[in-house]
Design a protein that fits this description.
- The protein is an alpha/beta fold.
- It is 45% helix and 17% strand.
- The strands form two sheets. It has a six-stranded mixed beta sheet, with helices on both faces. The chain has a four-stranded mixed beta sheet with strand order 4-6-8-9.
- The longest helix is centred in the first third of the chain and has 20 residues.
C-alpha cells in the first residue's frame, strides 16, 4: 500500500506507522489524517500485525501540530466539522483500536501531534521531546480530543495550566506527570518501543483487545466500566486463548496463544 504522507510497513508482527512530512515537521493535514485512517484500518484486518508503533519521521518532530494553512479561513461551521471528522476518522480510531498502539514521541509533539500521541494506548519519548497544546495562542482550543484526554492523563490542574499557558514541557516533566511512560535517547526510542511490543506479544492478543475495551469504557459517558469489565472477563472464558493459557500454566509450560 503506497502513501504520500505516511510510511506503513510490517515486520515481526509489528505494524510501523510513521508520519512522513519532515519538511513540514510532520504536521497533520486532511490528506495525512485520511492516510492514517487507511493504514489503521488495514492494520486492523491484517492478522500478522499484533502491535502498532506510531512515530514521526526525521529528528525534529513526532508531529508538530495541524497544518494551520488548511483552516485559517474556516467558518465556525467548517471548524466544527473539521474537529468532528478528525476525531471520527483518526483520533477515536486510535484510542479504540483493538491492537495496542505505542506512540514513540521524538522531538516536537504539539497541538494535534500531542493529541494523536495521547490517543495511543501509551507513550514513550526521547529526551529531546517537547510536548504542548499551543492552540489558545492562535485564538482557538484543542479540537482533536486534547481538552478531554490531557486531564485524564495528567490531572485537571496540570492540564489547565498547559492549555492556558500554551507552553511546552520536556520529556522529563511529561514522565513526572504520567503523560509518557518511559524516556530514552532518540537512538533507543524505536528499539525500546519494539522491546515493549515484544513483551506485549508474549500474551493473549484476544485478552488484550478485551482489556483495551474495558479500560476505555471507564472514560465513556453513560457506560459503566465495571459492567464492561465483567462482560469481557466472562467472554474470555469462551476463547481458545483462555484454554491455552490456563493449560500452559497448569502444565508449567510457555503458552502458545492461537489468537482466537
Amino acid at each position: 500500500m503506497e502513501f504520500e504522507n505516511i510510511l506503513f510497513e510490517e515486520n515481526n508482527s509489528i505494524g510501523y506507522i510513521t508520519i512522513n512530512r519532515p519538511s513540514k515537521l510532520n504536521a497533520l493535514n486532511r490528506a495525512t489524517i485520511g492516510e492514517l485512517n487507511e493504514a489503521f484500518e488495514s492494520a486492523r484486518e491484517d492478522r500478522d500485525i499484533k502491535v502498532i508503533i506510531l512515530s514521526g519521521s526525521g529528528e525534529k518532530a513526532f508531529v508538530a501540530g495541524a497544518d494551520i494553512s488548511e483552516f485559517a479561513e474556516f467558518s465556525p461551521e467548517e471548524g466544527q466539522r473539521l474537529a468532528a471528522e478528525g476525531q471520527e476518522k483518526l483520533f477515536d480510531v486510535v484510542a479504540n483500536f483493538p491492537k495496542p498502539v505505542i506512540a514513540a514521541v521524538n522531538g516536537f509533539a504539539l497541538g494535534g501531534g500531542l493529541e494523536l500521541a495521547m490517543a495511543a494506548h501509551f507513550r514513550i519519548a526521547s529526551n529531546n521531546a517537547r510536548m504542548g497544546l499551543p492552540e489558545v495562542s492562535l485564538g482557538v482550543i484543542p479540537g482533536y480530543g486534547g481538552t478531554q484526554r490531557l486531564p485524564q492523563l495528567v490531572g485537571k490542574g496540570k492540564a489547565m495550566e498547559m492549555i492556558m499557558t500554551a507552553g511546552m514541557i520536556d520529556a522529563k516533566e511529561a514522565k513526572e506527570h504520567g503523560l509518557v511512560n518511559h524516556v530514552t535517547t532518540p537512538e533507543e526510542l524505536i528499539p525500546l518501543a519494539e522491546k515493549l511490543a515484544g513483551k506485549i506479544m508474549n500474551n493473549s492478543m484476544v485478552a488484550i483487545a478485551a482489556a483495551i475495551k474495558a479500560v476505555n469504557a471507564n472514560y465513556q459517558t453513560g457506560i459503566n466500566g465495571f459492567e464492561v469489565e465483567i462482560e469481557e472477563f466472562g467472554s474470555s472464558f469462551g476463547t481458545e486463548d483462555f484454554k491455552e493459557g490456563t493449560s500452559a500454566f497448569l502444565n508449567k509450560r510457555k503458552a502458545d496463544f492461537p489468537g482466537k
